[in-house]
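Q: I have two molecules that I believe assemble together. Could you output structure tokens for the complex as a whole instead of separate predictions?
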Amino acid sequence: MAEQPIALRSPKHRVERRAIGLWALQSLIGFGVLAGLLTAAYLIVDGARSWLGPVLVVVAVWGAVVTLVMPLWRYAVHRWEVTEDAVYAVSGWVVREWRVVPLSRIQTVDTIRGPLEQAMSLATLVVTTASSRGAVKVPGIDAQVAARVAEELTQITQRTPGDAT
Amino acid sequence: MSAEPAVTDTPDPASDEPWQRLDTRVVWVDAAKTLLSMVPAGIAIAFFGAEIDWGTMGPILGATAFGVLGGIADLLRWVKTRYRITDQYVERRTGLLVRRHRSIRRDRIRSVDTSARFRHKLAGLRVVTVGAGQHSAAGEAALVLDAVRTETAERLRQELLYGVTPAPAADAVDAAEPAEPRPEGRVLARLARSWVFYNMFSIWAFLMAAGLLWGTYWLLRMFGLDPAGFVRGLADWDAIGTAWTIVIAVAAVGAVGVVGLAVDFFTENWRFVLERVPGERGTVLRTTQGLFKTREVNRDDNRLRGVQIAEPLLWRWIGMADTSVVSTGLSIWSMTPSAQILPRGPISVARRVAAEVLETTPSPVDRPLRPHPRRALRRRAGWALATTGVVTGLLAWLTTLIDGLPGGVWLAGLGLLPVGLALAVVAYRSLGHAVADGYLVVRSGAWARTTTALQSRAVVGVTFRQSLLQRRLRLATVEVTTAAGMGRYSALDVASADAVELATAAAPGLLDPFLTTSVATAAAEAPDPVQAQARP
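A: Yes, here they are, computed for all two components at once.
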């Protein structure tokens, strides 16, 4: 990450190392369910085997590649930062996203914790604006850090008047 | 802070404002509608001695049952619906089995629209729709009062939009008086008859004709006529031959559809007027239109954030355009296209109206746009090639799987290539962006070239997006998010070296703390293409 593809510096904070495991598990479970369903169909429906076979192979290979590559890649990319004026986060792997939202336009700040995240004491920070498409999601940060940041941001945004549109 | 939703399901506890019913005339309209729905079946049975069997009478009996049930449901709805307007909320209770309570905070109300079907007009009723900029995706819907008296509707509109103090209940007698004359507005556009040509020719013509012909066929069958035999007797179809028969049939159906669309256009847009009218809280953009069903939509100018002009590809040569406003609180996905401020019409009118709506000269949508790098064309051509490859591969795979398929089917996949490449060129040529006079203007689209001008002050966030391929081509997509319209507007595939500069121009100051130092100085200067090329 020596050279930035666009002219923005990286945000300060990396996500937790545990997030690598989280993403790997999520990918494994997702592809596992899909492959399981396909295998079941393969075993039950005789007539469909001729075309389900190749599909199953493609899904299995694709799943393995994604599970191995995606978490490390995401860990290298994902970064976040909260300044006095804005929330700034970089995410993605094949498609990378840089998102900046000014604090004055923030409507709600939430932390979301799925079952896997709870087990790993991780959380996803979700910052929403008045735009239906403008939410900034920062997955894979420590649950306590996320709660603290959410608390701070909520206090700041409550001081901002107007409906932030 | 507005974490609190605009539309809630909890009543306002702090008010003892009495609840009101919908207008009693709704009941009479329902009764009349129910009776009317029985008339066709009655006539068919009484005068034409039609047998009651499902073969011929099926559709008409179905329609009758539908009409009667609808009437009863409407009656129940009237019985169970109450509404009231308190100091802070508009509330409505409804529902027979599932009681629903809906309230909208009055300071969140963004539009109050009235509409009327033909039956409403006859009875002097109006349907009032109170919108609060709800997110349709979140399952929130507007609050609809169906229906109240025309005077009541007008009073509600004044009250909710312009904050006229709520009339006490004793004023109910006065409500029968005609509403005071409305303030005169500045007319921006009126319906021109020639616009019908932009709305007649569409693939929908065939669908419309199919519906019309099917309905007519059944109607005639019910009265004991034989439309199929009549058509068969029109000409000696065997002599004409199958090919010509098909050509004639398609042409005839198309002609019916085209006429149908023309009639539909006029009934929908009859006496269409777009005007800017003064209101208590600034001006509103108002459209009124419709012959049998009149529709009036008011768009608060305080919520106006920009305009959008879309030009469908196949009709760009005659300059066809759809014009809509980008505004907070007007849902793009709602059933009534309230964001659209003009019927489909010529681009010249669209541009003029856009300029007058924005009141900015020169109009942002008329500005010359900066084209995007040629590398963006390579990306689009790459997509065309990839799509062709995948489709061809899938077809080839299918031919090995399915025995009946001829071996050369995969060649059809190759036919996608010229179409895909042509679309790639069209899409590339559409690309453009500009920042001027406080507006961000972006243009893109293959099937519909869409130009959007969005006010910079409406930008609530900036997103850059870059795939691996884009990174190799040194391109990036700049997206601004906003509370208005579609929620986001993108400049696709700008040179990655210019991406931050564009975003900084569109949302000044937002990105300053995050600029890399080398570019923070370079961004201040004019963009240098040589430097952009030199970037790895």
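A: One point stands out. The mean pLDDT of chain A is 88.
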